[in-house]
Design goal:
mainly alpha; Growth Hormone, Chain: A; 2 domains
């Protein structure tokens, strides 16, 4: 009867009370009705609870729960500090990019010696210099989609093997043709690794510093070029150019097992791969990243081949062509400077060691610019930073080409060019990483690199021809200031809201 009292108070008239002596029969009838009503409501509630439990075990609800749990882990990683594992991965990517810098510019510093040893003119030398760039374009285009399908880690290991083999075999070359062949092999590896590095760094970075870490990654390239410049200035004249190629190839051989041991696939990539041990691999990585393990694997996304048409869907229809144009024009101006500054300095009468130092000075500026724009990118949008850097670089190119400067002022201008040109261009990588979703990110970056490499190939090649026909320095730098100006305008269009 006590249990029925709340029900009675709700349903009985206010004049009734358990202490009332009136209508005892009515009181008992109402109490029994209320008691039965409560029991009925309790049974209905129990049935509803059981129904909800059964619903929660249905496949659709189970998948939703697993998806929500996975998204919670991703959100926690986005907000969390980087941590040891993620910093190790980013550092490995930085070291690999540094080694790419060594592999690319080593031939640039050796070019004057090779030209003298084999009797090559500037036009023929331009073909050798662009051979690795041709391979890089092919590697970026071919291996970008492959990395999105089989994994970035596997592609990186293949790329390191190609780079090491190409550098070691280049040291055996005795003519221009064989050297060009092995440089193409090296370039394929470099192209594959560059596209994958940006994706890996982006996916292992937290949200607040993602642009900084991807730009920091690109700063590894000029550091490798700086080290190569100083080493070449001392060693090439004493030992020739071939031992340097052997040393560079051995560095790739050494780093290969380290990368195989320490570099995992990203959580986002593992979540999209249909593998029997998918949940176990994801949980191992989550534990390393300091996050709780998942109770269930998230549902696999609908199977969809990696198609180039995906790069033009929605807002990408405007941003992708602008990115391609910006990288093509930026690379034309950048690789003109990287490839020809030592040779231009030698033609101007500087001794070989000072000419190599001019190239190293450019790369010191490149490191400062790459790191600097990475810090600025944490506060300012990239589609405003890049135009600022490349617009200022256009003016610096005109100054360097048309104004005669003392030697120290010349080196200072080369340093500024490195800051502005390399810093502005390298920011295209974090821009591309932000632009594309995970499932097409490496394809997007790799395709942009492949298209852009046409500028890297044609830029130095055309410069060799222009120098061979006697084009003066002022006109040469005017010609290559134009692509930088176009790249600045294109960068402003990337990521802008469609009208």
């Amino acid at each position: 009867m006590v249990a029925a009292w709340p029900c009675f108070r709700r349903w009985a008239p206010s004049s009734c009370s358990p202490a009332s002596n009136r209508m005892p029969v009515t009181w008992g009838r109402i109490s029994r009705q209320c008691w039965d009503k409560q029991r009925g409501m309790a049974r209905q509630k129990a049935r509803r609870g059981a129904g909800r439990k059964r619903m929660s075990n249905k496949p659709g609800h189970k998948a939703d729960r697993a998806s929500a749990e996975f998204q919670a882990r991703v959100a926690a990683l986005e907000a969390a500090p980087m941590g040891r594992t993620r910093l190790i991965v980013v550092l490995l990517c930085f070291i690999l990019n540094l080694l790419d810098g060594v592999d690319v510019v080593l031939l640039t510093y050796a070019a004057p010696v090779i030209a003298q040893e084999w009797g090559l003119k500037d036009g023929a030398l331009g073909i050798v210099l662009t051979a690795s760039l041709l391979g890089t374009a092919f590697g970026s285009m071919l291996m970008g989609p492959v990395a999105d399908m089989i994994g970035r880690r596997k592609v990186v290991l293949i790329a390191i093997t190609l780079i090491g083999s190409g550098m070691l075999l280049a040291a055996t070359a005795h003519d221009m043709v064989m050297l060009a062949v092995w440089r193409v092999v090296t370039g394929v590896g470099i192209g594959a690794i560059l596209a994958s590095m940006a994706s890996i760094t982006s996916e292992f970075s937290n949200a607040r510093l993602r642009s900084f870490w991807v730009a920091f990654l690109q700063a590894g390239w000029p550091i490798g070029a700086i080290i190569t410049g100083f080493a070449s200035a001392v060693l090439i004249q004493a030992y020739g150019w071939k031992p340097l190629f052997v040393g560079s190839g051995m560095l790739s051989v050494i780093i290969l097992p380290v990368v195989a041991w320490l570099m995992p696939e990203s959580l986002q990539f593992l979540a999209k791969q249909d593998a029997p041990d998918r949940l176990a691999r994801m949980n191992r990585l989550l534990v390393k990243l300091g996050q709780p393990a998942l109770s269930e694997a998230p549902p696999l996304p609908a199977k969809r081949g990696v198609k180039l048409s995906a790069l033009f869907e929605g807002h990408l229809a405007r941003s992708t062509p602008a990115l391609w144009l910006g990288m093509t024009m930026g690379w034309a101006g950048l690789y003109f400077l990287i490839s020809w500054i030592p040779r231009i300095a030698v033609n101007a009468g500087l001794p070989l060691d000072q000419a190599i130092m001019a190239g190293a000075t450019f790369n010191i500026g490149a490191f400062i610019g790459s790191a600097g724009i990475g810090l600025l990118a944490t506060r300012l949008p990239l589609n405003r930073l890049i135009p600022g850097f490349l617009g200022a670089a256009t003016l610096a190119m005109l100054l360097f080409g048309w104004v005669s400067l003392p030697i120290m002022a010349t080196f200072a201008t080369i340093l500024v060019l490195g800051v502005l040109v390399q810093g502005g261009f390298n920011a295209f990588y974090p821009m591309a990483a932000q632009l594309y979703p995970t499932e097409i990110r490496t394809t997007g970056i790799g395709t942009a690199m492949a298209v852009g490499r046409s500028g890297a190939i044609l830029g130095p090649l055309a410069a060799g021809y222009l120098m061979e026909i006697g084009t003066d320095r002022g006109m040469l730098f005017l010609v290559y200031a134009v692509p930088l100006a176009i790249a600045a305008v294109a960068a402003w269009r990337v990521g802008s809201k469609p009208s």
